Amino acid sequence: MDVILLQILNGLDKGSAYALIALGLTLIFGTLGVVNFAHGALFMIGAFCAVTLQKFLSLSHTVIDESQTDFLGNPLKVEKPYIMDWFGPEIGGGIIEWSVPLSILFAIPVMVAVGFAMERGLIKHFYKRPHADQILVTFGLAIVLQEIIKYFFGANPIPTPAPDALSGSIDLGVMIGFEVNEIVYPLWRMVYFAFAAVIIGAVFAFLQFTTFGMVVRAGMADRETVQLLGINIDRRFTIMFGIAAGVAGLAGVMYTPINPPNYHMGMDFLVLSFVVVVVGGMGSLPGAVLAGFLLGILESFASTTWATTTIPGINQVIIYLVAIVVLLTRPRGLMGRKGVMEE
């Protein structure tokens, strides 16, 4: 039972990233009808927002520390971050330590701006073009963004640690009646799952309970009728593109302590996230979230020693096998809507 619970937790952790990226993908497809193969790059840019802020906060200058000496008794020269000069050692050190959560405040305007620029500068010219054209141009954009990140940050992963207070492990087993140390899980992964749940809940609440969201949902169902009512639905859809970019960026920010950012991490998640969208049903927001968590859990169980020993390589293909089975039995996906991508 403890092994099963651990694998479920691992699946929820991985599924949270899938669900957040797939949610953004579905928002863009559901509102604009665009198959955005650059969405994984938005996840990557969000991760590098955290890297950028950490590097900025860690900018330092050389000072002489009288409390430390070399073997000759001379005071040592040490690097002291500027932020410690401005706020003091304790507060300055705390800001550097909590740079990943603070990156959320930095990433939101950056990602929304990137989303607006991407939609207004490129995507809007492909609204009425075939999906194949959309895939080619957004995939090309993803490669360009990937190479830009590689040029400025290098090809190697960049460790971006979580705050010390959230970097340990928590004994979940004791809380539910197991023995001590039977179910120990990294605390930051629990934070990531909770963060994903909040973001997903906020997006659904925004679409369900605000006037803006209701108009957007109406536009997703019948764009022409909404336009005939005198509502500028295109502007609202552009805003939704920015929101979708923000969701992907925040997913990347909070994922950095789990997987050190590298220039190809967007591509690593992109293909899997598209599979999640297809399994959940094209254009279905609940389907994207449900499929994200389900496939994350399945992939976690397929990665166990027993599974990989019994069927070597099953952890690499399980998601695609599930996608094949689902599409053979339910061609529209788990919660797909009639008429979407069926012309």
Can you offer a commentary on this structure?
Pfam families: BPD_transp_2. The chain crosses the membrane at residues 15-35, 42-64, 102-123, 190-216, 237-258, 270-298, 310-329. Helix 1 (2-32) packs parallel to helix 8, helix 1 runs antiparallel to helix 11 (233-255) and helix 2 (39-57) packs parallel to helix 6 (131-153). The chain contains 15 helices and four strands. By secondary structure, it is mainly alpha-helical.
Give me a quick take on this structure.
It comes from Roseovarius ramblicola. It is found in: Cell membrane. 68% of the residues lie in helices and 7% in strands.
Distance between the termini: 47 Å
General shape: globular
Q: What is the H/E string?
A: HHEEHHHHEHEHHHHHHHH
Structural class: mainly alpha
What is the CATH architecture annotation? Answer: Orthogonal Bundle
Keywords: Amino-acid transport, Cell membrane, Membrane, Transmembrane, Transmembrane helix, Transport
Pfam family, one: BPD_transp_2
Protein name: Branched-chain amino acid ABC transporter permease
InterPro entries: ABC_transp_permease (IPR001851), BCAA_transport_permease (IPR052157)
Layout of SSEs?
Blueprint: H1 2-32, H2 39-57, E1 60-69, E2 75-81, H3 82-87, H4 89-97, H5 99-121, H6 131-153, E3 169-171, H7 172-175, E4 184-186, H8 187-209, H9 211-221, H10 223-228, H11 233-255, H12 265-280, H13 285-302, H14 305-310, H15 314-329
Antiparallel strand pairs: 1-2, 3-4
Helix pairs in contact: 1-8, 1-11, 1-12, 1-13, 2-5, 2-6, 2-11, 2-12, 5-11, 8-9, 8-11, 9-11, 12-13, 12-15, 13-15
